[in-house]
Amino acid sequence: MASTLKINTLTGVTTAGSIAVTGEGNSTTTNLQQGLCKMWCQYDGSGTAELDDSFNCSGITDNATGDFTLAIANDMSNDDYAVSGVHGSMNYQFHSEGAKTTSSCRMELYNGSASAVDPDLACLLVHGDLA
Questions:
Q1: How far apart are CA 118 and CA 45, in angstroms?
Q2: Is the pLDDT reported for residue 54 higher than 90?
Q3: How many angstroms separate the CA atoms of 78 and 118, rounded?
Q4: Cα 102 from chain centroid?
Q5: What is the predicted pLDDT for the residue at 76?
Q6: Taking Cα atoms as reference points, which of 17, 42, 49 lies closest to residue 31?
Q7: Please, are residues 72 and 58 in contact by the beta-carbon 8 Å criterion?
């Protein structure tokens, strides 16, 4: 018989913000909060750059062709978070200077010929600890 659990808040017993989830083999655990994506967005960089949809992303800045800064609404605890992104079959990279701060990350997008491009569709994901 199937069960339904309805709940608005999960809180750890030992530490309020820490919930362990038993892994597939029943021998390891994963911290639920550590595995969640803390910010994501899908945006259109062609013409006037705009967010199509997002979570914890408060805006986009078009710095130049193929160069965008995504604002993180609720800051990360430091700039050591992981970032990944995609846009069609093109290449991307992050600025080495000031690429990531606790409140934003900057992304450069290129085509296969290494020319900067403003894509119709790009996505960005951030994993790490919120402040």
A1: 5
A2: yes
A3: 29
A4: 12
A5: 96
A6: 17
A7: yes
CB 94 within 8 A of CB 115: no
At position 47, the amino acid (one-letter code) is: G
At 2 the pLDDT is 87
**Residue 120 phi, psi (nearest 5):** -75, -30
Between residues 50 and 88, the one the model is more confident about: 50
- How far is CA 48 from its chain centroid? 21
What span, in angstroms and rounded, lies between the C-alpha atoms of 71 and 57?
6
Instruction: Provide the Cα torsion 18, 22, 23, 25; round to 10°.
Output: 160
What lies within 8 Å, CB to CB, of 129 at 6+ separation is: 34, 38, 76, 77, 78, 81
